[in-house]
Amino acid sequence: MAQKPLLSNRQIWDINLGFLGLQICLTLVMANTSRILSSLGANIDQLPLLWLAPPLAGLIIQPIVGYFSDKTWTKWGRRIPYVFIGTILTALMMILMPNSFVLNNVFSVIVSITFILFWTLGALNVTTQPYRSLVADMVNTQQTSKGYSVQTILANIGGIVGSLLPYILTLIGISNQVESSGKIADTVTWSFYIAAGIILVTSLKTCFSVKEYPPHLFESYNNIHAEDKQSTSYSTRKVVKALFQVSIVQLFAWLAFFIIWVYATEGLAESLWNTKDASSRGYNDAANWYGVLSGMYSVVATGFSFFIPQLSHKFGLKNLYASALFIGGLGMISLFYIKDQYLMLLPMIAVGIAWALILTIPFTIIKDIAPAKKMGFYMGILNITIVAPQILGGLTGNFIFRNLAGSSSIFMMVIAGILLFIGAASVFLITDISNKKQ
């Protein structure tokens, strides 16, 4: 079997560059959806169900894109055509989302924004899945960890920019208040426009810079013919086993972050600004500050990602993964007790450590054991372990909010922390990662 060539740093960064713009868009959507829905009239009981749109988009679209991109060979490549189409659609939907009122003559405001939210996340998923598979397709086994680490670094930088954009625009004088019913703050609108421009620049740079391996080289590099001769039932059982074990950790980790995304803005407004009025200045200041907190944990995750390979060698991957989730749980719980907006930056350090591992380890596990010929399909299936917990959160969120959190949005942070504790314990059920110290 021929070996994939070792790639230069520039080549690895080019493969992943579009992930920067992608994550800016995704972070803006995830950080501001509750804010937008509330500004347009949704109440706290409706938010979890309305938040079903993003994970449903991922559940439906990513496995389909993964399956078909595995079978796609064009003169432009295998994954790049999907990245290109997804990029154009994402930019268009990012422009449309803050202007959902244009559909109000046909649908209600809430139906309009939910419809647009679904297709915005759908476009993002068309782009995301091929990027995950592109690293697996292009990068030598020796550089796999580096490839996904660069992707994580760019994703977290994108998370920082996406989180801080509305706050930065407020500082330079753009209005952060809702001017009229059925509209959202100008800071949010312009943030979405800027993100649309960035994803076009970064993702198209990847599209025009990366030359995927032609079919004959890809088959040679990945020993496809030998793969076909091996027992597919054994290979399938091994991947399914790993996916099941990883999915247990993913269930608790992503459910915890889903709760943060849905309830943090309301929780901060309630706890620090003493308001629940989505049109008030205090509520929009709380929403901006939640963006700052999200930026903080993205900064930490970016920095921590550089040290994951060394730390995993020193302490063992399972110990590192479990410890990161446990520390993140402590950070989430402490948000309930802190009553100063600036002190809330400190627990975001802990949350960022957890986030770095959540974005890296599951993909590394599956990439190392999944057949190259079906990599896109299995990456799509792995995405189900990300979106299924969010769907569960959407369906049960209001019950948890009313019955376990006592209708307190800020107490939902405690629930999220406990879920990360359970996720940390579940790490030791995974048998396909080594815990040996080196």
Describe the structure.
Keywords: Membrane, Transmembrane, Transmembrane helix, Transport. It is found in: Membrane. GO terms for molecular function: transmembrane transporter activity. Residues 242-438 form the Major facilitator superfamily (MFS) profile domain. The chain crosses the membrane at residues 12-31, 51-68, 80-101, 107-127, 148-170, 190-208, 242-264, 289-308, 320-338, 344-365, 377-401, 407-430. The chain is mainly alpha-helical and 438 residues long. It has a single domain (9-212, 232-429), classed as Growth Hormone, Chain: A (Up-down Bundle), CATH 1.20.1250.20. Helices cover 74% and strands 0% of the residues. It has 18 helices and no strands. Helix 2 packs across helix 7 and helix 2 packs antiparallel against helix 8 (186-209). The chain is globular and about 65 Å long.
